[in-house]
Amino acid sequence: MKKFLYIIWGLLMIFSVGTVFAQDLSLTRVGVLSTVGVDYTNIIYLGGIPTLEGMASPSATVYIKIKSSIDATAAASPSGIWRFTPGVLDPGNSLVVIASGQQSITFTINFNATPAAVPTATPSPTPSELPSAGVWEYYLPIVGMGLVVFFFGKFLKDLMLSWEGKKR
Asked: Which helix (H) or strand (E) holds 73?
């Protein structure tokens, strides 16, 4: 009976943690600007034409649309990294849509093609708080099971000993 309870408990733990996966499509860099962990909706970029970099599912096709003039695809590597450098980028605001599968990322880049010694990028508007990750909710079943084991451990131990016909 003890083995049965351990198997049930183990299966509950596997299924409660099995749904925690990272998002497949993400934008990690726009030129020199790191976008890891931040959702930029409007980026002001000064300098040369920026390279867009990100992560996708391994070997996936990433579709990039800038304004209505540039339609391109980039192939993600076997490790999921993709890069795209547009040949031409019009000065001013350009809507950028990056898509792979059913996921998409949309932002506006305000490109100013002034030659600078070092390219710079600034997000606008600056986020005032951290983005919500939503991962904590997957740990609630694990914490709950831990509390159950902690508070009812003695009861379960005595019950299992009585099932085996042993007394303490």
From this structure: strand 70-75
> Which residues neighbour 22 within 8 Å (Cβ) at sequence distance 6 or greater?
none
Name which residue leads in pLDDT, 93 or 2. Answer: 93
Which CATH number fits the domain that encloses residue 86?
Answer: 2.60.40.10
Domain span at residue 13 reads 2-20+136-163
pTM of the model: 0.55
Domain check: are 100 and 141 in the same one? Answer: no
The position carrying tokens 């904590």 is 136
Residues 106 and 152 in one domain: no
Q: Is the pLDDT of residue 168 over 70?
A: no
Q: What is the pLDDT of residue 64?
A: 92
Q: With bands split at pLDDT 50, 70 and 90, how would you rate the model's confidence at 100?
A: confident
* One domain, residues 10 and 31: no
Report the half-sphere exposure of 21 (CA within 13 A, side-chain side): 8
Token readout for 74 is: 């980039």
Looking at the structure of the chain, the number of domains it has is 2
Q: What's the CA angle centered on 153, arms 149 and 156, to 5 degrees?
A: 110
Residue given tokens 């980028």 in the structure block? 89
145 token code pair: 């099971």
